[in-house]
Amino acid sequence: MVKLTMIARVTDGLPLAEGLDDGREVKDVELYKQQVKALFKNLANRPNEPSRMSVETGPYVFHYIIEGRVCYLTMCDRAYPKKLAFQYLEDLKNEFERVNGPQIETAARPYAFIKFDTFIQRTKKLYQDTHTQRNIAKLNDELYEVHQIMTRNVQEVLGVGEKLDQVSEMSSRLTSESRIYADKARDLNRQALIRKWAPVAIVFGVVFLLFWVKTKIW
């Protein structure tokens, strides 16, 4: 199945769009997203890399195509047909170029085309079930061949050891920061509740005290 989808400008690695609902069921999804960003950066620094490649990482495979200075990448299960993965990317490429072509080079902020997620989700659904008549026909399409597309390991592409350690460290830092943010959010909510209800509690306390004193006197 298709797990992640990300689109970036090759010249500088700027992320342009991604599937917003992707990766929810993927363990260590942030690690894989950081690997994707490292791949984009690697492509920006190495303009002579192949325009189509599959990169194995753990139980998944990154498939990407580069066209018009844009990289379209998806992460799939290893068992997912390579042919369908690349046809999925071709569909994304054709629509992305048609809709956003003139603005791609001038985009200055990350995820400038985040609305493209709607098309990503709609197209992804078409490719999830490999046994539909539509996808079986695509698998049998002899005019679309992927046998010559190179497959490499993520360690070969990013560099053994050091770069992978950096990606892992970055992922761990992001996880730690998200936990700190969640703790701070809980503290702020708790403080807000205290500020909201403390005056009410004080009023009730005073009323109760006056009532108690009154009963003692009488």
Automatic annotation (TrEMBL):
PROSITE patterns, alphabetically?
LONGIN, V_SNARE
V-SNARE coiled-coil homology domain sequence ranges: 135-195
- Pfam families attached here? Longin, Synaptobrevin
Q: How does it sit in the membrane?
A: Single-pass type IV membrane protein
> What are the protein's GO molecular function terms?
SNAP receptor activity
- Keyword Protein transport listed? The answer is yes
Per the UniProt record, which residue ranges are transmembrane? 193-213
Q: What is its main location?
A: endoplasmic reticulum
Q: Which Gene3D superfamilies match?
A: 1.20.5.110, Longin domain
What protein name is recorded for this chain?
25.3 kDa vesicle transport protein
- Which organism does this sequence originate in? Linum tenue
